[in-house]
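R.M. (postdoc): so does anyone remember the format we settled on? I'll just put the structure tokens first.
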């Protein structure tokens, strides 16, 4: 009787954005190791999966956009970005990731209409990419705000431009 448990196959392709590897072999009975697997550097699968104190990696693909990230923890309005005098903010992407269950939403100005409003569970991510040709825009001198129903540590990200 063979001690073969199962054939194992992994695949790898590189498309420029995604890559994976092809590997074939046999996993022997009692074997707990498949080759030498190593991990190096710093990485995050998703904030909230493990202790995580930094925002998601942001990499704006749109030329001319500014990437901003941070963390807020106060209930009510939390000012994220203040435009330069006489300018307004045009937001192309925004997201939030609270540590606990909360109702959260973005808005422009202290009393502006709430958008991307959700009651979410702890460590969930709400994100919206408006796209290269679409955006949400505040009025001149209006700050960009994340409104929280409770004082909850919340990571946020946005890609924007001042106009």
């Amino acid at each position: 009787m063979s001690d073969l448990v199962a054939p194992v196959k992994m695949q790898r392709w590189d498309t420029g954005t995604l890559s994976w590897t092809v590997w074939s072999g046999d996993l022997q009975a009692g074997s707990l190791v498949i080759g030498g697997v190593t991990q190096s550097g710093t990485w995050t699968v998703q904030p909230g999966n493990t202790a995580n104190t930094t925002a998601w990696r942001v990499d704006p693909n749109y030329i001319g956009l500014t990437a901003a990230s941070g963390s807020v923890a106060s209930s009510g309005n939390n000012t994220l970005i203040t435009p330069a005098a006489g300018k307004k903010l045009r937001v192309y992407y925004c997201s939030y990731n609270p540590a606990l269950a909360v109702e959260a939403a973005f808005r422009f100005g202290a009393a502006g209409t709430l958008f991307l409003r959700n009651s979410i569970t702890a460590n969930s991510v709400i994100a919206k990419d408006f796209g290269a040709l679409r955006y949400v825009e505040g009025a001149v001198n209006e700050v960009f705000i994340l409104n929280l129903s409770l004082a909850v540590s919340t990571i946020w990200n946005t890609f924007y431009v001042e106009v």
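R.M.: ...and that's the designed sequence above, right after the tokens. Also worth knowing: Confidence is low (pLDDT under 50) at residues 1-24, 31-40, 42-59. The first strand starts at residue 4 and ends at 10.
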